[in-house]
Each structure stands twice: as C-alpha cells, then as structure tokens.
Amino acid sequence: MKVLVTGGAGYIGSHTVVELLQAGHEAVVLDDLSNAQADVINRIETITGRRPAFYENDCKDADALRRVFREHEIDAVIHFAAYKAVGESVREPLKYYRNNLDSAITLLEVMEEVGCRKLVFSSSATVYGPENEAPYREDMPALQTSNPYGWTKVMIERILKDYVTAHPDFCAILLRYFNPIGAHESGLLGDDPNGIPNNLMPYIGRVAAGQLEKLTIFGDDYPTPDGTCQRDYLHVVDLAVGHLRALEYAADHEGAEAINLGTGHGVSVLELVNAFQKVNELTLPYVIGPRRDGDLPAFWADPTKAKEVLGWEATHTLEDMCRSSWLYAKNCARK
Ligand code: UFG
Fold first, then answer.
1. Distance from the CA of 154 to the CA of which of 139, 163, 218, 256 falls in 20 to 30 A?
2. Nearest residue to 200 (alpha-carbon basis) of 300, 276, 97
3. What is the mean pLDDT of residues 282-296?
4. Which residue's alpha carbon is nearest to atom 3 within ligand 1?
C-alpha cells in the first residue's frame, strides 16, 4: 500500500512512518515542519533503511496536496497534521480552528477530486469530555470537550461522519488516542516539543536530563487512590501499529468508525514518576503543586473494540515506556 502521512515528521507520525516502511508499505510524508525537524526524515531512513518521499508543505495548501497525488498513486491517507497544544488553543482559538479544520477539509476535497477513499484520522480521547465515566467506550456520547483543540477533534469527527453519509463508499477510521508516551527503541525518534513541554512525559525527560529544575505534580487531592490524576498511557509504537491495523481494516470496509487506542488501565502521575525513577535508576526532583485548570481526575479506554475490529492491543509495558522515553530525552539533551 502507498500511504500519504500528513504530519508524518511529528511525534506519532514519524513512528507510524517507521512501522509502515518496516511492514513493506510505501510512505509519502507531507509536513510543514512547524512542530517537527527535517532531520526526522533522515532518522527514519537510518532506522528502516528506506527513505520516504518528503514534501515540506502545509496541509491547507490544496495545490501541494494535488501535486502529491499526481506524483504518487496514493491508496490511503493517515491525517496527523494539526496543532495540538491545549493551553495555546485556549489563548489562540482562531489559529486552531483555522489550521485544524481547514487542513482536514482541504485534504478531503483533494481526496474527493482524485478519488482516494481511505482515511485514518488522528482523533483523541478528549472527545469524551467531562460528562462520561471511565472506561470510555466508543458508543458513549462524544460531543463534549473543554478546549478549542479538543473541539477541532470533535468537529472533524462530525465532518467525517457527514462526509461518509454523503459518500457511503468512503472509509474513515477515527482513532481516539489516550496518552501516547515513550519513544522508538533506537532513541532516534520521540516527543521533543518546542519550548517548555506541557505534557507530562517530555517534561519529566527534561527534568531527568537536568534541563528543567523539577517537576510540579498538578494536584494530589483528586478522588483517586493516591490523589494524583490517572491516565491511560500507551507506548507510541503500539499506537503506530494501531494505525497500520486501521489501514488494513479500511482497505476492505466502508463507513465511519470511531475506535479507541489505549491500554485499558489508568496509571497515576505518581505511579508514572515512580516507575520512571525505578526503571532508569535515577531520582526525579518533584513537588506537589495546585491542580491545573481543565484536568479531569481519571480516565482510561475500554479497548475492546480495537481488539475485536482491528485485532490490535497494546503490548508494551509502563517500564518500556519509561525506559525508551529516557533514552530519547538523554539523546536530545546531548544535541
Ligand atoms: N501533569 C503534571 N505535571 C506536568 C504535566 C502534566 O502533573 O508538568 C499531569 C496532568 O495534570 C495530568 C497528567 O500529568 O494529570 C497528564 O497530563 P498531560 O498534559 O501529559 O496529558 P493530558 O491528559 O492533559 O492531555 C492529553 C493530550 C491531549 C488530549 C488529552 C485528552 O495531551 O492532546 O490528553 O485525551 F486532548
């Protein structure tokens, strides 16, 4: 299969490109490098021995997309390209709505022009919002969220469902990710956001590397066993493999299908911090701070549907996630 991966130089995108190439598929990456490094393409080649075609373009650029489809016989698209910082989306909502919605709509329009009918979309557990109780199942109402970033995911899911209603021969798989962490075992790919990280694991990596002084745990008075928030952390390589299974499923199915990708287990912030210290044999300075606005106490996936429909389940342990994250963070710190 030849697959266009928008946002393929980013954190989840790059790991997915590696899995695609290693499974014998061909990958074409389109990425404007607004939150990724060009060197990622070289690293993908180092890991796989194969170099994906690379277009440094914005996914809102219809002509650039047309050129990709003209130059390659694309069978399916995985759409990652999007802005993803929750806090920034609250401060700059228009930037998020313009970029994320426009990218998705432009991509769909060009796919329609060229007759490409298979799409895997990078959605998020954020669509379950604050009303549902964990574990989240795909048949729960998923129309609430708490920030503009999350709303772009809800809206694009809606757009895709409406598009499929109008075009029943199209297949859109909406993958709702929980909390991806970890890095490629080579230490060459991982999560290295610009500026001070918002997400827990890249923040921990920088503290462990001595680039940030200490971790602040946002609240220890939640109604959870140790008082800190619980999330469903899954290894980014498991997540990447989930995209391959979704592509295989889409190849001979039609319709729109939302599917959770998570482990099914909640892990608290303190449990994650302790696992990171233990597996990497280091001490992580941390303090307990106030709660962060908008954080939910606890949520995790019901991953039954992914197993039944895609034959997918997470295989990496929390220790694998902590070990690989540190390997990558050490490499980044040396740069
Ligand atoms: N946390 C800290 N200290 C930090 C950073 C995070 O204690 O410095 C805690 C948070 O309070 C939370 C947990 O670590 O309890 C995880 O926080 P992340 O920011 O890593 O992840 P979130 O669960 O807040 O957000 C993630 C994705 C979003 C997605 C959301 C819901 O980043 O894209 O899950 O699915 F929308």
1. 218
2. 276
3. 95
4. 217
Average model confidence (pLDDT) across the chain = 96
| Residue type, position 306, single letter | A
Residue 149 is a catalytic residue:
yes
What is the DSSP track for 271-316?
A: HHHHHHHHHHT----EEEEPPPTT--SB--B--HHIIIII------
List the Cα angle 20/142/9 in 5-degree steps.
Answer: 25
Q: What is the pTM of this model?
A: 0.97
CB atoms within 10 A of CB 31: 27
Q: Report the atom number in ligand 1 closest to the C-alpha of 149.
A: 36
Nearest CA to ligand 1 atom 16: 200
Given 149, 163, 222, 328, the catalytic residue? 149
pLDDT at 332: 83
If you measure from the C-alpha of residue 165 to the centroid of ligand 1, how many angstroms do you get, rounded to a whole number? Answer: 34
What is the token pair recorded at 306?
A: 């992914």
Summarised one tens digit per residue, pLDDT across range 149-165 is 999 999 999 999 999 99
Q: Which residues line ligand 1 (CB under 6 A)?
A: 84, 86, 124-126, 150, 179, 198-200, 203, 215-218, 229, 231, 269, 292, 295
Q: Rounded to the nearest 5 degrees, what angle is found at the Cα of 185, between the Cα atoms of 182 and 189?
A: 65
Please confirm whether the linkage preceding 135 is cis (ω < 30° from 0): yes
Q: Can you tell me whether residue 112 is helix, strand or coil? A: helix
Q: Report the relative pairing of strands 267-268 and 230-231 from DSSP bridges.
A: antiparallel
**Confidence class of residue 144 from pLDDT cuts 50, 70 and 90?**
confident
**pLDDT tens by residue, 156-210:** 999 999 999 999 999 999 999 999 999 999 999 999 888 899 999 999 999 999 9
Atom of ligand 1 nearest to the CA of 230: 15
